[in-house]
Amino acid sequence: MQPQHVAPRPPSRSRLVNVKQAEAALVEHYPRLVRLAYLTLPSGLGRDRRVLTAHALTQRALPRGRASAPVIPAQSGGGEARDGDPGYSFVRLQVVRAALRADRSGTGSRRSKRFSLPPLLPRVWGLRLVPRSGGAGELALDQQLSELSGPARAAYVLRGLERLSEDGVRKVLTAAGVADPVAAVREAAGVPAYDALLGSPEFDACALRARPTDLMRRRQHTKAALAAAAAVAVSGALLVLPGDGWGPDGAAAPLYAQNPAAQAALDPAQVTKVAPAAWKTAARTDFSVWPARGTLTGDSGLLRRALAVWARPGGAVRFSATPGTPSGGPAGPPQLLYAGEVDGARIVLFYDGLRVVRYAEPKNGEGPAALDLARVDAAGGAEAEAVVLTRAAANVRYLTAPWVTKAAERDLRKPASGTMDLGPSDGVTSPLASPAQQTGACDTWNVLQLTDSSGTRLLTDLGELTPAHLTVGRPGAPREASGAMALQTWSPYACSLATARGQGVRTVNAWEFARQTLPGGTVTASWVCTRADTWRGGKPRVLAQFLPPGAPQGAVTAQAEDVPACGAKDPQVLAGVLWKSAVGNWYLLAAGSADTASIRASGGVNGSTRGRLLTVRAEQGARAELTGTLTNGKAVAGLR
Fold first, then answer.
1. pLDDT tens for residues 251-294?
2. Among 590, 573, 416, residue whose Cα is nearest residue 509
3. How far is 613 from 598, CA to CA, in rounded Å?
4. What tens digit of pLDDT does each residue of 424-436 get?
5. 60-86 burial by CB neighbour count: b if 16+ within 10 A, else e?
6. What CA–CA distance (Å, rounded) separates 496 from 180?
7. Cα separation of 477 and 486, whole Å?
């Protein structure tokens, strides 16, 4: 349970930055940006991999087109040409965001190392590249930084290296997607300021020394490889001896290019095309009954290229897959959903029963092709009603299901505002502003509102091929988030959806599990938990949020991943927050769901209550542990 003081956020402005501005800033300040990334990354990576990761993240910080840069206060000193440069502010933000994303994804694991960086890194066989060693001061500082969380480490570096004010650090962290920048700044303040050490050669990822890797291990691996090669050679010789033994390929089918099933999967003439009216008589409404739409469904050359790239994406292909999505080629002839030209690109959409696959190539032939895969197994209803066609200039277009009669854009932050019609035309919507790419203050959150004969529902873009379905209500019995009350429920918590970007999210449910009267008055505050469930089933993300009267947004008081709380299997939640009253008194407020029989606080704050609401006087900055008991006698811990 993290202390949280709720206060309205002031609006911020943004400026547009083009590629040339960002590139000039990156080239001019490249050593500083690499140092910033190196210091923000977790030390558990090892110095060699931190160096390579820092360079990779910095070099990938350029925008693809024009992008908005948040206006961050200039450095308090030593900023020189960086002060007021929107290009530098933008690139710095991208570096910080990428380093924090690498930290959250657990870059130190073997699996994440494969996917967190580009496939080709500047490697020299047998050598490790590390910065020059520092003294005891640098070693001690590195040790203290390793004990901080990723956001706190970024806050410390922005304050010490970039010389930003505390307010400036909070704004950068907010723009980078940190859920609680105030807590990060507070945690960073626990480490003494060693600004001079941050600029030392110990942390200069551009001034490197070359060292050999583990020589004994290399020698052992070389011997093992030679022995394995000798064994393969002997086995191969035995296989080709005359007699009744196995042939060179054993019982395997012919080579891949001659395999009938493989050939059918890559043959555009074998692609399945569903009839336009098939969905009207189908027993279910999912991707399997989508018709083939678009003006290029008969372009066999385009379909052949799309299938070939899907099966064997080359090094120049921009590839992405939502977490948990198999990345292999089609097992058989897939279903064609769309083939046409949109926003200067030729787009092809396939469905193979498990995944939706999007292939895109520039219409003029200039630039790389793109391949995106998204897992959609067991999708139905709202989850099978829209797929992203294109992203351009911070906008997104969707291809909608054939049964969708109306598509509209709605601002989830303004529930009373109207909607803007998006068509669709032959299933293709007009472009709408995507919240997945916005930075800076969260003043708006545009969602896609779809209507069919069964009702209206909301979906939001979280930067992936399929949008996430928004619902409200008690876990296990959620309702569509399209009604007036549901829109009012979601409005203060819309911006928290940013924490679920790129996680392979299927649905996000908002549940008001308690209302609590605040000390010293009759006004009440709301407690809401939002749960983002994924297509792969695991790694759901749960946030507990607190909304006092008059606050424009909910404050995240606790967050957890891969827990059953606030879900259909265990619809229980317990959370707390430190709250300051209008007269300056601090209180620990805690609330549990309806089945909570009692709550106890221990540690920095002590108190208990019978029932599901707790109010205890506390000191500023106090930390407490929450435990609860359900009506059935089961214990429940406070969400962290």
1. 444 444 456 777 788 899 999 999 999 999 998 899 999 999 99
2. 573
3. 8
4. 999 999 999 999 8
5. ebbbeeebbbbbbbbbeeeeeebeebb
6. 11
7. 14
